């Protein structure tokens, strides 16, 4: 079985975009692959985090993994910082990386643009991500477009290590889901829906109560026309809402178009809101059950213990190859 690995940062509320673009695919992959899904708290602290908020968000994202349908009996669910091998391999790989290649990372350039003090953590972020992936010798990494460059760097670091110290690391490939839906922002269809957008009206959080979802959808930007027609170039906002409809109602875009033929945006949006509410309702119910039961801690502990065996072995092997004296 091929190994799949991915991580989500606990740096804000997960959105409908994360659900459609990531979590739903994770749920499918767990049946056919050996899966590693983690909450990457060590990555979140590359920008300042309030301790209480970080703790809450980390637990929340882990619970959302399970609420979305990832089964801890099938997939490994864990918190990155629970497995110290990530940090250790991260350092070892950092010493193999070059300033130049890290300076070229577009995410680093975006996040540091215009700032006069730039955190070092933000700069070496990609070497820790490489460690996350290589420590389990993952074959496939489901990530969005914005992470492809980091994956490229991971491949380079793995190849560099293999060339210097002998073949060891698997060279991971990006995994592009069949339905590569990209959900756009509700206030600006040229930007992806993102939990880090300062305007909460721009995204639907997975835990938004029904009335908030209704309000956000009713206020979503649309063009001045009135036909519910799919055309991402001429009607990007309505097309984005139609994609969301199709994904939530399990319909094709054509079926959505037919269903709303001759109807106004208002009616379409009302119906869309109910579709989204219905789609998220079971997930939210399950989420609150998990949080109340406190079971998440045992699941995460078990997940970390299981994967640490694999990760610790990798670090031992790597250190041995690099010439470290291992404790005997
Ligand atoms: P992020 O929230 O940017 O850390 O992304 C975590 C994962 O969720 C990424 O690997 C993406 O595949 C997915 N994702 C995030 N936002 C969207 C979106 N608006 N549409 C589709 N997928 C998304
Ligand atoms: N950098 C990724 C993001 O911001 C999160 C991440 C960290 C990740 N480690 C990973 C994704 C390993 C895939 C594999 O989305």
Structure notes:
Helix 9 (210-218) packs antiparallel against helix 12 (265-293) and helix 10 packs across helix 12. This protein folds into 2 domains: 3-176 and 294-322, HUPs (Rossmann fold, 3-Layer(aba) Sandwich), CATH 3.40.50; 200-288, Tyrosyl-Transfer RNA Synthetase (Orthogonal Bundle). It is globular, with a radius of gyration of 21 Å. Strands 1-2-3 form a 3-stranded parallel sheet. It has helices at 16-29, 41-44, 51-67, 85-94, 99-103, 106-112, 120-134, 148-165, 210-218, 236-249, 253-259, 265-293, 296-322; strands at 3-8, 34-39, 76-79, 140-142, 173-175. With 328 residues, the protein is mainly alpha-helical. The model has no long low-confidence stretch (mean pLDDT 95). It contains 13 helices and 5 strands. The structure holds adenosine monophosphate and tryptophan (TRP). Adenosine monophosphate binds at residues 8-9, 17-18, 20-22, 143-144, 147, 181-183, 192-195.
Question: What would the keywords be for this entry?
Answer:
single chain; 328 residues; mainly alpha; Tyrosyl-Transfer RNA Synthetase; 2 domains; 5 strands; 54% helix; binds tryptophan
């Amino acid at each position: 079985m091929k190994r799949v690995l991915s991580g989500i940062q606990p740096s804000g509320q997960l959105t409908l975009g994360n659900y459609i673009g990531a979590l739903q695919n994770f749920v499918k992959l767990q049946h056919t692959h050996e899966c590693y899904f983690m909450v990457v708290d060590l990555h979140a602290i590359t920008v300042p985090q309030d301790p209480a908020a970080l703790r809450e968000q980390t637990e929340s994202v882990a619970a959302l993994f399970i609420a979305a349908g990832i089964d801890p009996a099938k997939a490994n669910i864990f918190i990155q910082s629970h497995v110290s091998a990530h940090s250790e391999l991260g350092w070892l790989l950092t010493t193999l990386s070059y300033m130049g290649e890290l300076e070229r990372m577009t995410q680093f350039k975006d996040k540091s643009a215009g700032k006069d003090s730039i955190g070092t953590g933000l700069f070496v972020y990609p070497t820790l991500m490489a460690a996350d992936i290589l420590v389990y010798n993952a074959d496939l990494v489901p990530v969005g477009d914005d992470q492809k460059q980091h994956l490229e760097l991971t491949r380079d670091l793995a190849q560099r290590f293999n060339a210097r110290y002998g073949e060891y690391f698997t060279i991971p490939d990006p995994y592009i889901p069949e339905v590569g839906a990209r959900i756009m922002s509700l206030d600006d269809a040229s930007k992806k829906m993102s939990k880090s957008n300062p305007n909460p009206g721009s995204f639907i959080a997975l835990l938004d109560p029904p009335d908030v979802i209704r309000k956000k959808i009713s206020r979503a930007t649309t063009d001045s026309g009135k036909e519910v027609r799919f055309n991402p170039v001429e009607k990007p906002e309505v097309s984005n809402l139609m994609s969301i409809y199709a994904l939530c109602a399990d319909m094709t875009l054509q079926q959505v178009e037919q269903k709303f033929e001759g109807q106004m945006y208002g009616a379409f949006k009302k119906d869309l809101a109910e579709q989204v509410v219905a789609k998220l309702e079971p997930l939210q119910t399950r989420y609150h059950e998990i949080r109340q039961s406190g079971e998440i801690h045992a699941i995460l502990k078990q997940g970390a213990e299981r994967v640490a065996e694999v990760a610790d072995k990798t670090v031992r092997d790597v250190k041995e190859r690099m010439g470290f004296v291992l404790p005997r």
